[in-house]
Amino acid sequence: MYYLMLVGLTGDANYNRVGEKWLYFSEEKVSWFKAYALCRTMDGYLTSLENKRVWESVNKHLKTNFSNDSWFWISGNDLASSGNFVWANTGTSMNYSVWSEGQPKTGKNCVNLQFTNDRYEMNNLDCHHFNYFICEPEHVDVPILDLERELQYEREYQRDRDLERAREMNALDCNLENEFNYTRRKPSGLPLNILY
């Protein structure tokens, strides 16, 4: 029941593909600690932006889909050791980071994304500040990734089927008496006319 209340707070818990990650973007503002807890109830964590490729795809998604005044919690923090920022879901050091000018500041322990200089950049804030947040799933199983391939096969199959139907419709010829004349080719290459 607690899970249902939390999903009610965050909207549906659907993850969307953004670059190489599956991400959930909240619609409610909460503290960093609450954001962390909410992501855990959705079998995920606050997201980590470990490299330039991930950073650029998330930045592009945020710029395209959210207003410039939307701030988002991510998993970065220095709660264990002041000045040593790590990703909460892995405990690894934040080796790749795009800090805003003058950041990080002393005494602010949790990392968020803020729109600055025509892009989203990292800032550290008081963890009790209310922001939107971004979750990523704990595990992305291979079937989720295979689903994209299967959908591509389905689209190709549908396209081929539609083309075949169009070819068949072009081969149909309706005469004035509403009799349908279907022209087919015999193996010898000679036309075979069948009246229906």
From TrEMBL:
Transmembrane segments: none annotated. InterPro entries: C-type_lectin-like (IPR001304), C-type_lectin-like/link_sf (IPR016186), Ca-Dep_Lectins_ImmuneDev (IPR050801), CTDL_fold (IPR016187). SMART domains: CLECT. Gene3D superfamilies: Mannose-Binding Protein A, subunit A. Residues 24-136 form the C-type lectin domain. This is C-type lectin domain-containing protein.
